[in-house]
Amino acid sequence: MATFFLFLVTLLSSLVVSHQQPLLDSAEQDSVYEVLSSINSAIPWRTLFPDDLCLSAPHGVVCDYFFEQPNSQNLSVSTTLPQTVHVTELSFGYVSDSTPNPPCSPNSTLNPLLFTSFKYLRKLFFYKCFTETPVVMPNISSSSFGANLEELVFVENPALVSSLSGIIGNFTNMRRLVLNGSGVYGSIPDGIGNLVNIEEITLSRNQLSGSLPFSLTKLKKLRVLDLSQNHFDGNVPESIGNLCQILKLDLSYNGFMGKIPYSMVNLQSLEFLDLSFNRFGNFGVPLFLGEMPRLREVYLSGNLLGGHIPEIWEKLGGVSGIGFSDMGLVGEIPPSMGVYLRNLCYLRLDNNKLEGKVPEELGFLEFVNEINLENNNLSGKIPFSAKFTAKIGEKLKLKGNSGLCIDEDFGSGKNNKVILEKWKLCNKSDIPNPVIFKEHNSVSSLSSVQVLSSPSGLMILCFLSLLW
């Protein structure tokens, strides 16, 4: 107890002294001013923040204490006191009122001091700073920069130009690498496999190309991999299944081809999968999706996979979003999608070659807010109630199916404010009646819902009970 009290007294004394003596090294403080000026030279940073920047700094400049390692021969309290203070985070670009980082100007530049003066930097963040004047990022892959860096984040900086190989260094402590909406180009270097602690790699909306290196799949701690909207091509390697901790995989809007790797079935933690708008083809919707019960969203649109929609939905009750547009799908829409996908909010099956009736089971989905079945060959009665169509509104999209029709009561409810296309009225032949048949000593019904909703439904059920 006495030792703890002595520690508190000594710590308070050191804080009092800190008001008299600068905490931050003067050279490091000058570097911060220079970097701030390069981001926005119109703001008088030295005048607004004349004191020690580790005591009074603009939001986005963060410092931290660093301690000497205790000496085994001298375990006194003094060895646990802070010895130095350094800048550990630099964040630029206004994001919101809760994070009012130093605002960038249209002519912001990237000061080289960023990569030489902050040896203890853990986070470097830029948001919409380099938007007009081209800014070239120096090659830092072989420099000493980033020995302690955990987050390198550049968001929406279209004028930032750099090769990815010039950025990927030996960042053994790196947890987040985010470079989206920038002018980063080149291929993914093999050195990315050195980021052994990386948890997120987001490189979307750049000018990247080439194939995926094997070293990428060595990153056992990776949870987010987003390479969307680039120019990658080639086959996705089977080794992608090694990313056993991954939660989000987004390879959309690239030129990947061939077969979707079966090894993805090993990604049992995966919740979000987007492979849409690539060149995967002629192998059908992967059946292994039905063996990934943690999936919440799956998007395969724009790949000519072909084939039928498989019966894989029984174990996927947690799925909330499905995008299967423009895939060359044929056959009927499985009613099981409406039976098992109880959390479904978003369903797109448009621009395929689907035929047959719209399953009435889709109308029982409690949380759905968009169903797009446009431009198929669907036919028969639109089975949705007035209440259901009113809930979804204009996001119930059925046009481009000339065989669909409505009965006389469709849309007659007072609460149905949905304006659908002017559908033709169904003929009696378009509205199926319940058909009861006996086969192999068992009685079946084409639709129990139809039986219960028919005028004589109860009589039929009573008759069936006598037969059973």
UniProtKB/TrEMBL annotation:
SMART domains: LRR_TYP. Its main location: membrane. Pfam families: LRR_1. It is found in: Cell membrane; Endomembrane system. The keyword Transmembrane helix applies. Residues 1-20 form the signal peptide. It is a single-pass membrane protein. Belongs to the RLP family. PANTHER family: RECEPTOR-LIKE PROTEIN 14, RECEPTOR-LIKE PROTEIN 8-RELATED. This is Leucine-rich repeat-containing N-terminal plant-type domain-containing protein. It comes from Hevea brasiliensis.
